[in-house]
Amino acid sequence: MTEKKSCLKGVGLTKVFGLGRNKNMAVDHVDFDFAEGEIVSIVGESGSGKTTLAKMLLGLINTTEGDIYFQGKKRDIRSHKAKKEYWTNIQAIFQDPFSSYNIFNKIDTLFLDCINMRGGKKLPYEKKVEMMTEACSFVNLKFAELTNKYPFELSGGQMQRLMIARIFLLQPKILLADEPTSMIDACSRATILDMLMKLRNDTGMTIIFITHDIGLAYFVSDKVFIMERGKFVESGTADEVILRPKEAYTKRLLNDVPKIHEEWDLSTVDIKVN
Amino acid sequence: MGKVILEVNELTTKYITRFNEDVYAVDHVSLKVEEGKSLGIAGESGCGKSTLALSLMGYYFAPLHYTSGEIIIDGQNITGMHPDTVRKSILGNEIAYIPQAAMNALNPTQKIINFIEDVVQAHDPKVSKKEIYELARERFEVLGLPKEVLQRYPVELSGGMKQRTVIATSVILEPKILIADEPSSALDVTSQKMVIKMLRYMMEKGYVKAMIFITHELPLLYNVTDDIMVMYAGQIVEKGASKQTVFDPIHPYAKGLMGSIIVPESGLKDTKLTAIPGTPPNLKNPPEGCRFAERCKYVQPECKRFPVDMKYVEGDRSYRCIFTEEYLRKAYQND
Prior knowledge:
The complex is a heterodimer of chains A (274) and B (335). Chain A is α/β, with parallel strands linked by helices and 274 residues long.
């Protein structure tokens, strides 16, 4: 296998909240290297620092320590212009599709903003409509039915698919998906995952999944990182981590997920809490 | 065959929208739950799972209205009763309900013990506070919750603890049947496991005699329940023992649903996730024939002509499709 080009790299990434006695290491000296066109998952329980890490990668919060390298160069987003530039390369899908949209903007506006952001501001309107139709058909929605609608008129699954259509128009280098399927039911989940994988195959973007669903992580990703209390406790290819876990924490997580072909051992948890 | 705790015959309930349209969200549903058994209900969002749960309690408030059918709890028909009687003597006493985000049911300005006092005194005002405390303490201890929880406020408890507190409270009057509507979907895997273990333990202890469990997480359903019922667009499309329904579904919709299971087991990467194309029909004007016909892979013209009845096959299984079991199995094999 040829060595893939590094897309996003973190060295000693740390985020500390609070001071003195209240000091809380949300993310604790984390190192990683995501290659281009790879799907990676960051798995952990609530409060393990997954979302804090995601926010740092997106540049929404500052890092306390450590550096992020984007395509081999050190990321510098101190100026507003540089930040905007960076955001054309990295985009995100969040957990709650209902609160991801500007409620005052129609869907057309949302798409037109995306096209403008990609530098298509001067294109004729017909061309823009063509692009929007293509994006909608990518996610099995019909653009003709969506024009002049507001996002809240759609169902949760449709909204999440619209979010993917947006990503399709923007074509970022990296997509950060923070629990993209935890709010929608199991049947729509398969559709969303299929689309994300197709998006990766078509455009070669790097997708970073952040999830607590270890089954989903195993299904989609090439590499899995297990996070516990701000640290990566185990990492490797999906098969290595999920099928042959070494760390006790990973084993516990796996054990707690209900399975269908193996016995689900209920005795590992105790309902007595002191 | 055990004693039948809950029997529902051809229950139909509808929503009346503000434009005076009828939406039949539960359409001629029949089911039976025996003592010591649990029934699981699976299906997509919007297929009527939660409406069925609400309808089963026999207490209706707008926009949900009762249309026809009967609900029999332990030999007692509750459908003809006055709503106030149902509220006073059936809810909580005979049938208990845990909603999806049960932890939000707790009053943030009250201690847990006050909440429990309210619940008990709503049904019997004569019970003294001391008796209630003793009852709650004993019940909590058995279910693994420390008695200090009773003197706490909801903000002092974690999400999993709150959920378990509400569940423990819901069975304080020893109802005959417990309806759990996605009790663990807001929790992480470890807390989920604790909730499940607690529900099982309650059944063993006899605090509830039977349970109905609603979720769209099929692996969870498979591990918790004895029987599984698959719902689609307000109707039951398949019913059978858990193992059979998960590993060997007959109805094409059930088959599609089982294809969307994701579990961290070896061999998962080789299986292809089968998403069902399309969306469920609008129940304002449901299709004449089979409701799944629009999205079905094996659809034939005659599917869309007449309403489809449940077909019964050996081993207490039933499904709603015009094709025979052999025909469907052959079709699945050819895929």
